[in-house]
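Hey, I'm writing a tutorial for new members on how sequence and structure tokens pair up, and I'd like a real worked example in the thread rather than a made-up one. If someone can provide the structure for the chain below, I'll link this post from the tutorial.
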Amino acid sequence: MRLREIGDVVFTTPAIAALRRRFPNAHIAYIVEPGAAAVVASNPHLDHVIVAPARRGLRGIAADLALGRRLRAVRYDLAIDFHGGPRASLLTWLSGARERIGYVVRGRAWMYTTRVPRPRALRARHSVENQWDLLRVLGLGPADRGEAPVEMVVPHDASIAVTERLAQAGVAPGDPIIVIHVSAGNPFRRWPLDQFVALAAGLARRDPRRRIVITSGPSERDAAQRVIERAGSLSIGELSLAELRALLDRAALYIGGDSGPLHIASTSPVPIVGLYGPTLPERSAPWRDRAIPAVSIDAGPLPCRPCNQRVCAPGDFRCLTSISAERVLDAAERLLREPRRADAEAVARDRG
């Protein structure tokens, strides 16, 4: 059980693979809400993906009770709640599984038969490892990014759709593609628009063969269009999560903030430049083989960082606005010159 968000669902995929190794003959199902369902829809370690529509009010309660009855009828032996929210806790309990593993959550811990402490502080520890704590009670060893990286399978139709869109945009098969994602789920993770423009223009200026593809979420469509117009970049239209993942198999580099698309990128072999404002790279940098290079750029130590992303204490979002386009451009050029280094130093951090 991990209902949302995109990145959090991505961070459960190492656990899915580990559970399959631990229980090779088990029937394994995954419950997720629609927004992140594509992450696990084609996961080879799962037997069944149950998409639970996010409904509110009495209809939502009725739907969850009905889903609970369906789960109970299957007679699951084990339920693991990687989410811990009210809805996830309720569905875990309604499943009637003999063993129900979840976090010690105030007011809901009684819904689990096995409870695992979860510190409330924002720790400098990767989210994969935080969620892996729930597997330790099953006898699984520590999380290993080499043995169990994040993963997302690319559907064949998504690959075909992306190939067609690139061709329509005039991108030849051998053209180097750099994907820049200008969106983030909240304003605390949005790098300034002018910096995106300067970055895209700088990358194109240094090598005219490059095709700079700008992507965004629905809420940032207008901002993405402004970057495209001002920097002379490309758009290949709105992409589904599966199509974004397919695009990244063609890309030479991905650049973006700490949001769902960055974590989708981490399931691919593309080198990544990640921009971290209120969040910590130690918590959400790409979880994959260290031979695949990535650079995490942040503002360095600040008294307000990390934060809970509800109120910007200084009021100027300095954790992101202090990151210059030049720093990001330099990091990008380093990865483009040396796309793979088979050593642990391939995952680096650029501190402010």
